[in-house]
Amino acid sequence: MAATEPEKKWYYGNCHCAAVKFKVHFPSLDEHEVTVCNCSICTRNGYTLVYPKREDIEYLRGEDTLKAYYFGSKKAEHRFCPVCGSSVSIDPHGAFGTDFVAMNVRMFQDVELDKLKVKTVNGKETLGEPYNPE
């Protein structure tokens, strides 16, 4: 018997200035874990991540204005608002064998961060050589 996919709900989100608005179809954050990583970029940007499939993300405004930042292997596109600087997502463009986008839950509306189930990832140790900008 095939495993059934958990029921999903729509989460609405935006950057701080609301120049970028989106919605994400994802299992309930009451039950699903979010990821917090200690690597350099996640720590600096304050990422708290979930990993919806690309087709479960719909931008309502501002997707075409998002700016990109790449570092290290340059495989993952870190997308942020050009107006307020909010870190919205990380798009690996299939680099990890799946078609997901890491969305920053801190941009979601009506989510109580202190009530989330957090999975901590030791990216400092597991994501390869530490990033050291010159």
Report on this structure.
This protein has helices spanning 40-45, 123-126, and strands at 8-14, 21-27, 33-37, 49-50, 57-61, 67-69, 77-80, 87-91, 102-104, 117-121. The protein is built from two helices and ten strands; from the N terminus they run βββαβββββββα. The strands form three sheets. Strands 4-9-8-7-6 form a five-stranded antiparallel beta sheet, with no helix packed on it. Strands 1-2-5 form a three-stranded antiparallel beta sheet, with no helix packed on it. The model has no long low-confidence stretch (mean pLDDT 91). By secondary structure, it is mainly beta.
* Content-based structural category: mainly beta
List low-pLDDT spans: none
Q: Which percent range fits the helix content?
A: under 10%
Q: Work out the helix count.
A: 2
How would you concisely characterize the structure shown here?
The protein is mainly beta. It has 2 helices and 10 strands, in the order βββαβββββββα. The protein is 7% helix and 34% strand.
Helices and strands in order, then pairings?
Layout: E1 8-14, E2 21-27, E3 33-37, H1 40-45, E4 49-50, E5 57-61, E6 67-69, E7 77-80, E8 87-91, E9 102-104, E10 117-121, H2 123-126
Parallel strand pairs: 3-10
Antiparallel strand pairs: 1-2, 2-5, 4-9, 6-7, 7-8, 8-9
Key features of this structure:
single chain, 134 residues, mainly beta, three-stranded antiparallel β-sheet, 2 helices, 7% helix, globular
